[in-house]
Design a protein that fits this description.
This is NADPH-dependent pterin aldehyde reductase-like. Belongs to the short-chain dehydrogenases/reductases (SDR) family. The chain is of the alpha/beta class. It folds into two domains: 33 residues, no CATH class; 228 residues, 3-Layer(aba) Sandwich (Rossmann fold). It is built from eight helices and ten strands. Strands 6-5-4-7-8-9-10 form a seven-stranded parallel beta sheet, with helices on both faces. The two termini are 28 Å apart. The protein binds NADP nicotinamide-adenine-dinucleotide phosphate. NADP nicotinamide-adenine-dinucleotide phosphate binds next to helix 1, strand 5, helix 4 and helix 6.
Length: 263
């Protein structure tokens, strides 16, 4: 069956939307349609995950700083489903930008069921004492403060809704030490620590995990390896997204505080 010709029938009950999907096996399957916020949807893993989840008839609330890439993503999402996908130009390092994003999300009745804190920056391979000060600010502000900004503005909305799963994108670099990657590693170790601390603060209806996506061929991996050819030996974001979407949708409150990995 062609991706674009999959038939969905929708039923709204209270706050939840149920999809009935006609599968290749000839059976109808019922699934709840979720509102999923993903930061950094302009390229790489965030974009591929947004497209895969839209294809499964979930609603995407996405952001990045690149308006032209958001504009090109929009029709692709709506091609998969007519859900009220919502893309917003946000710099996660800016508290006021994230605050405006949260206000717009509330005004559009799109408080997320799931948040994927995916936006991040990597850095060139070098010793910490050779790292440029701007690079330190950019990586820590994006990977750590950006993740905190999203949590500060969106977790209260999830608490009000009495449900929510927060997934903070980590890395092998957040669980192991790698020479000449101290800056990026320390930002991802911070994401791991943050996730485990916040897990102890959340009410029991919510959960937070860190997720190592594995190595995937993106601009970020090419920057880290210093070589597009070497990076291209790894799976593409599209290949990765199918497994990742199943993992994201399968996380429950019993996973609270866990460090998960996509293998
Ligand atoms: N690829 C891998 O092999 C790998 C391995 C381990 C972990 N990870 C993690 O997986 C996540 C995605 O990585 P990726 O490889 O897909 O990276 P990528 O291709 O470089 O994409 C990064 C995304 O983050 C967004 N972003 C960066 N700074 C932002 C900001 N200040 N505000 C809003 N959005 C911002 C970018 O959008 P704009 O530039 O348009 O704003 C872009 O959409 C990251 O957390 C990364 O650490 C990746």
């Amino acid at each position: 069956m062609n991706r674009n010709t999959i038939n969905y029938y929708k039923l709204a009950l209270g706050n939840s939307h149920y999809n009935y999907r006609f599968e290749e096996s000839g059976c109808w399957r019922m699934a709840v349609s979720k509102k999923i916020l993903i930061t950094g949807v302009s390229k790489g893993l965030g974009r591929a995950l947004a497209l895969e989840l839209a294809n499964r008839n979930h609603t995407i609330i996405g952001c990045s700083r690149d308006q032209s890439k958001l504009d090109s993503l929009k029709p692709l999402l709506f091609n998969f489903s007519s859900n009220p996908h919502f893309l917003f130009n946000v710099d996660v390092t800016s508290n006021s930008s994230v605050e405006m994003f949260a206000q717009a999300v509330v005004e559009n009745n799109l408080v997320p069921d799931i948040i994927v804190n995916n936006a991040a920056l990597a850095c060139r391979k070098c010793k910490i004492w050779e790292t440029e000060v701007e690079e330190v600010d950019n990586v820590i502000n994006t990977n750590v403060k950006g993740t905190i900004n999203i949590m500060r503005h969106f977790i209260p909305l999830m608490i009000h809704n009495k449900q929510g799963i927060i997934i903070n994108m980590s890395s092998d670099a957040g669980r192991a030490a790698h020479r000449e990657y101290a800056l990026y590693c320390s930002s991802k170790w911070a994401v791991e620590g943050l996730s485990k601390c916040v897990a102890k603060e959340l009410p029991e209806e919510l959960a937070i995990v860190s997720l190592d996506p594995g190595a995937v061929y993106t601009d970020m991996l090419a920057l880290c390896l210093g070589d597009h050819h070497m990076a291209s030996q790894f799976p593409s974001p599209r290949q990765w997204a199918s497994k990742a979407a199943t993992t994201v949708l399968g996380i429950t409150t019993s996973d609270n505080g866990a460090s998960l990995t996509i293998n």
